[in-house]
Amino acid sequence: MKKIILPLIAMSVLVACGGGGSKDEKKGELSTTDISENPDYKKGLALIAENDCLTCHKIDEVLTGPSYRDIANKYAGDAKAVSYLTEKIISGGTGVWGTAMMTPHGSLPKEEAEAMAKYILLLKK
User: Fold this and answer.
1) N or C: which end of the chain has fewer CB within 10 A?
2) What is d(CA 53, CA 109) in angstroms, rounded to the nearest whole number?
């Protein structure tokens, strides 16, 4: 009986600690990406920090305007999102996220507004 139980226990331990767990961990590693190394992320983050964006927006908090994460999730998968958000950043607007008006940033170059839009869209979950 001991000759059967000990090998079964050993096999159970090997199976429990071996293959199954490592496959799940590898899948998690493949699906997790570090966006902080993305050039669009770096450029957009720097531009947002230089401008007045953080007065009304935070990554995960709703302030005067929506959170960047909410914006990213709303427009995820939309092929026109970058151009739409670029235009919104420059011309401002109201009504999409409630009654608060987004201040226009007309003096902001289009390339910079586009970099900000790309950064925001990278924050989707």
Assistant:
1) N
2) 15
